[in-house]
Write the C-alpha cells for this entry.
Amino acid sequence: MGFRIARTMAKATYKESGVDLDVYRESMSRLPRLLRRTHSPRVLANEGGFAGLFQLDFADGIFARKYKDPVLVSGTDGVGTKLKVAQKAGVHNTVGIDLVGMCVNDVLCCGAEPLFFLDYVAMGRDDPALLEAIVEGISNGCVESDMALIGGETAIMPDLYQAEDYDLAGFCVGVVERAKVLDGSTISPGDVVIGVASSGLHSNGFSLVRKIVFEIGKVNASDLAPTELVGAVSDRDSASETPPTNDQGKSATTVGDVLLRPTTIYARAVRGVLAHYKVKSVVHGIAHITGGGIFENLDRILPPGVGVTIDRGSWPVPPVFAWLQKMGDVEEEEMYRVFNMGVGLTLVVSPYYAESIQQQLAKTGLASWVIGRAVVGEQNVAWA
C-alpha cells in the first residue's frame, strides 16, 4: 500500500537567503554625494554606468598637465584586522581613511600624482548606515589626497561573513612622467634619510596589537586611555566624532581613539616637495613604512652597493609603542619589525636640500627628522 505525502514548498527569495535588495538600494542611494565631493573636471559623468570614467589630462589649458610620456601607477591594499578594533569601538567612519592612506602612500613612492580611487566593501548583511559611515571615511581620505572616488563595489555575503563583519579593499591609480619615476636607483652614498612622522600605529600590526591589548592586557576599547597616550591624539584625528566626556565634563580619550587614529596621508606634502624642484632631481627614493618597519621597507628601494645606517634616538617614538611593548613584553627588534615606530614615510634626498625639504614638510603640518644616511656597502638597512 503506497503513501502520498503532500508538501507545500515555500518559494525561495533572495531576501530569505540574507540579501534584501530594497535595503541594498537604500544603501546605494546614500553614496553618490560622497563620491561627487571628490570629483574634479577630469571625472566624466557616467550615471548608471558599469565603470568610472576619468580623463588623464584637463581639457582646460590653464590646468592642463601636457604629459609627454605618462606612466600609470597602481596600488591596492586593505586595512587588515584594524577593522576588528573598529567593531569593538563601534566607530566606522575612520577606517576608510586608513584604506585610502595605505593605497595612496604606496603610489606616492613612485613619484606619482594620485588620480582616482575605487573601493570594495564586503559585508555580512546590508546595513545602510554602516556602509555610509565606511564610505564617508573613504571619501574624506580621497579629498585629503586630491583624488577622485569614481566607483566601487559593495558585496553582501551572509555565508562568508558574520552579520556584523565587513572587509575593505582599495585600488588607487596615479600618473607620473616616465623621466620622473622614483625607484631608488639614483640613491647614492652621502644621501640623507628624512623620516616623516606617522600619526601612530597606522594600519599595520593589528593582529599583535589586539593580542596585547585585548587578550594580554584585558583592556577594552571603551576604557579611558592612560594619561601618557592622551596627548598623542588630537581633536582632529580622534576616532570619535564626539569624544566621550568624564564626570567632570572634560574630554576623555579612549583606548579605541588611540588605536583607531587614522593613517597619515602624505599626498599633498610629497606632491608639494616634488613640484618644488622642477629641474633638479633632489628626492632619490621614497619608502612607505608599513609591515616590516623602517628596515625592510627602506631596504626595498636601495640600489646595489648602497646601504643605509639609521641613527638610534634620532626621532621621538610615540608613547603608544612603548605602552604596547611594555604590556606585551615585546622585544625591541620585534617592535621595529612590526610597527612604523613613529616614522610613516622616508625620503632619501640629496644632503644639500634636506633642510629645505624639512621646512616644506613642516608647512604642511608634518614633523620630520634626519634619521640616517646612505653609505657604501651591503645593500641593506642597519643601525648605525
About this structure: Residues 233-251 have pLDDT under 50 and may be disordered. The CA atoms of residues 282 and 350 lie 6 Å apart. Residues 183-384 form a domain with the Phosphoribosyl-aminoimidazole Synthetase; Chain A, domain 2 fold (CATH 3.90.650.10).
